[in-house]
Amino acid sequence: MKFLIAGDVHGDLNSLKHLAEKAKKEEVDAIILSGDFTYFDYLTKGTFKILKDSGKKIFIVPGNHESLATTDFVVKKYGVYSLHGYYFDFGDVAIFGAGGANIGPNISTEKEMFSLLEKSFSKIKSNKKKIMITHDFPAKSLVEKITFARGNQSLRKAIDEFKPDFAVFSHMHEAAGIEEVIGNTKLICVGKEGIVINI
């Protein structure tokens, strides 16, 4: 399975066109947006049409810029899939996630985030490979050391307990591209350019 994962596009149509082209060129199975696809809930016209025209499945989690109402609207209007407390089973590979962050206009509590991840993970724990998608980043991570914000304790707990193969997030624009390994989990902070994961 190949996934193109990006975050913090904030309605930038040029970045979205680049992602759609990259998805086709790399022949990925799905495009995943790890939050902040709007700018304070303002959805740029054409955002999801550009991605849908790539012919790929689209998955999202809300960021701290998206309310749950905006996320639900996007799911219903554009036929994309929400991973906020949900999962998608591709056979051997599964993706699951939770959106929001501990700062910003749309805050999710750490308890709520862990509960959503736990619920979705319980359905796919027997899958061989797992990718956890969030907007916020985990505590005690490299990203926390180089940015102004504190990491999310519940996400670190989820990594320690669920041991996904990948934990992919965004939120800290300046940390895009940073990777590290905690236990058996590879952590990747993505930006609007996106990265391809082959699993």
What does it look like?
The protein contains 6 helices and 11 strands. With 199 residues, it is α/β, with parallel strands linked by helices. The protein has one domain: Metallo-dependent phosphatases (Purple Acid Phosphatase, chain A, domain 2, 4-Layer Sandwich), CATH 3.60.21.10. The strands form 2 sheets. A 6-stranded mixed sheet has the order 5-6-7-8-10-9, with helices on one face. β9 and β10 form a beta hairpin. α4 runs parallel beside α6. The N and C termini lie close together (5 Å). The mean pLDDT is 95.
What brief labels describe this structure?
globular; alpha/beta; Purple Acid Phosphatase, chain A, domain 2; five-stranded mixed beta sheet; 31% helix
Secondary-structure element sequence? Answer: EHEHEHEEEHEHHEEEE
CATH class: Alpha Beta
Strand order across the largest sheet: 5-6-7-8-10-9
Structural class: alpha/beta
What would you say about this model in short?
By secondary structure, the protein is α/β, with parallel strands linked by helices. The chain has helices at 13-26, 47-52, 68-78, 110-124, 142-146, 153-162; strands spanning 2-6, 30-33, 57-60, 81-82, 87-89, 93-98, 129-134, 166-169, 179-182, 185-189, 195-198.
